[in-house]
Structures are given as structure tokens and as C-alpha cells.
């Protein structure tokens, strides 16, 4: 099964993210937009994992959750990862970076103890609104038009998510969730 570790959001936050995503859609010729139910913040992408690896991932999540207290973060500005003409459009985090980084580092250390290689890419916390987006105008113009409120998110747990297709539609399904201390 294909899995990743994430911070999930409540329905109110998902509704807000969907509203900002609709603003991006209005400024787009096309794109592959994240389903409202799939909004999350990825802590670590794992990829394909078997039953024994899932057990070890859960152990790493448990060790991390027992060592980290819940904390808050705030939404930041609209951002992009350019991919030629197509872009990944996301919302960043404006506050809570230190706590998020601590959570990520503890998770990485626990995953490494469980036999997983450390992530090579820098941790850049963001919430993906869509991929392969072709904007109708320059990203800088769009990002000035779309105001992101600094809404607060309480990080109280981390989840192991399965990425699966159900009737051809991509779904991120929580298969394990652990509350932070």
C-alpha cells in the first residue's frame, strides 16, 4: 500500500482551503486540484510499504507522538513550485515553523531507528491546493489577489495515511492516528 505521514485538518479548515482553492481555479486555465477531503500537511512521504513496514512506521509515529506536545501553526501565503509552464500551487505556514521542524526531526529520527532512510529533501511545510496548474496570468498577480488569512491550526495528532483510488478517485484514508502528548 502507498502511504505517507500527515497532519489532518478539521472540516472548517478544509472548507476555508477549498474557498482559497476556488480562487486559484478562477485564475487557472486548467489543473489537477486536490479534493477537499484530501487537504492535509505532509510530514513524510513513505511510498509503497508492506505489512511489516507499516508496523514499524506505526512504532515511529508512537515514539514521536509520545515526545512532542501539541502546538499551533498559522496559515501563510500562497506559494508555488514551478514545473515548466505547470505549477504546484500551495499555502504555506507563517507561524509554528520551529514546532513543525521539531516534530519532523523527531519523526525522522524514529523512522531511521525503525530502518527507514532519512528524507533527503529539505522539509518545506505546505498544503497543496493543486498540481499541474496552468495559470491565466503571472503567479505574482494571482498571489496578490488571493488573500490568505492567518487562520490557526491546532496540531494535536499525526496520522498514517493511505493513498488509494476508489472508483477511480484519489482518496487519502487515515489508517492510524496518534495523539501528541
From TrEMBL:
InterPro entries: Cyclic_Pdiesterase, RNA_CPDase. A motif (HXTX 1) lies at residues 40-43. The keyword ATP-binding does not apply. It is an enzyme of class 3 (hydrolase). The active site is at residues 40, 126. One of its GO terms (molecular function) is RNA 2',3'-cyclic 3'-phosphodiesterase activity. A motif (HXTX 2) lies at residues 126-129. Its EC number is 3.1.4.58. Hydrolyzes RNA 2',3'-cyclic phosphodiester to an RNA 2'-phosphomonoester. Belongs to the 2H phosphoesterase superfamily. ThpR family. This is RNA 2',3'-cyclic phosphodiesterase. It comes from Thermotalea metallivorans.
